[in-house]
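debug: dumping io for the single-chain case to check the tokenizer round-trip. Nothing else runs in this session.
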Amino acid sequence: MTDETTVVVETSAGALRGSIDDAGTAVFRGIPFAAPPVGDRRFAPPAPLEPWDGTRDATAFGAASVQAGGRLEGRDTPNPTGMFGNIFGAGDLDVAEDCLFLNLWTPAVDDRKRPVLVWIHGGAFRMGTGALPGYDGAALAQNGDVVVVTINYRLGILGFLYAPELGAANAGLLDQVAALEWVTREIERFGGDPDQVTVFGESAGAKSVECLMAMPAARGLFRRAVMQSTYAIPMDTESATAKTQAMLDALGTDDHAELRRVPLLKLLEVDAATMAAGGAVGGGGGPVVDGTVLPDHPVDAFRRGDAAEIDTIIGTTLDESRLFGAFMGGFDEIDDESAIARIAMFVGGGDQQVAKEALEVYRRAHAETGASTGNVDIALAVQTDRMFRQHSIALAESLSDHNPSTYMYLFAWRSPVMDGKLGACHGIEIPFVFGNLDSGMGRVAGDPSTTRPLSDEVQPAWLSFARTGDPGNGWPPYDTSSRTTIVFGNEVSVEADPLGSIRRFWAEV
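debug: decoded output
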């Protein structure tokens, strides 16, 4: 049922009233996809959504997941994430435990059965929301005649506490599964095809996609996947258990159930304190290989062929770590000795000789490509490879062994801000994919008049992949013999094994 400004869709849980924008796109915001994870449901897997009477308003975003620096009950929560939270956090939204909402853009509410793209936001598993302006799906939906969905999931300690005593493990990932189950169940009512679902995400969102591809609970809920800057983190239960114990110690209790009973602001204060003390990794810091929700590390699962039926795009930006350098004052020049010490933190297990070798390998590779050979630039490049690029290459190798529809990219468009110091930094590809070139990250990428031509190359590739499993654009599949990769920069080119000498160095060490 529609008029000029609103549209009503009847779902299995009840009716939803959305809005119609100036371009005719139907937009539904703040759709609940699971029961509120509050009270005894804190840390638990998501519970089924309860139906409602009447027509529910779906014209405003729901609350963001509880996170550092968010506005909770009229108060700002502790913010150990600093500037990152200000950029990738909750935006203008309140945060709440009742946060399991999704948002949807569709060109029309009809029976067309369009491809569906489900976006999982990044933010280190501690911040973010699917409602940020940079993730607005209107342009993508209209340009590609697709349905776009963005989702929330529980973050931080609420989403990733590891406590078998409470049945708590990877609740945030299970929230994502619940959202995909909603899509399977309901998307046809919004003009989408439940058999043509692509999940895509950046940073922690890409890591989520990586995990979903290895999760039995997510099998069959999507057909294609795009991982934009997934990364390597510890996923062991030992460090996760230690983080949980540190929180119990701070609360002065051995009763895990107290974590459910403690007031939320107190829980966040304890979480922030343990994070500041070095407990950010593990429980509350991201997914863990718990043996049940996530039975195996995704790399091992992919090597076995567990994701063989899923077509995949995977890639990174050229200068991922330069964004982090910008916030941590990481651009001051350093001498060789300091560079080697910094590099040793990322390669060779602290071995100074391996770090010295890395410095020379990177200098030669950078000189060959015309990149900076300065020590800071090389140290940041090593950090990029350690966290992002070499992990992504390993995933692409494993995936391509079982599915020829595996594609790899390297995003090399450099930001002009900060006198170019950001380079092709973490997250810079997002506005090119969504077409939101006037968004915050869009402005970091450059003036829309200069970025539009590349977006007109990137967005159609993502849309073609979602529709057919082939991104087109002369982009060949990836395999371990040719390692063919598309490079998105001032020009779009196809290269065999870009920065191959660096890849071979990492393979050796």
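debug: round-trip ok. DSSP finds 17 helices and 17 strands in the chain.
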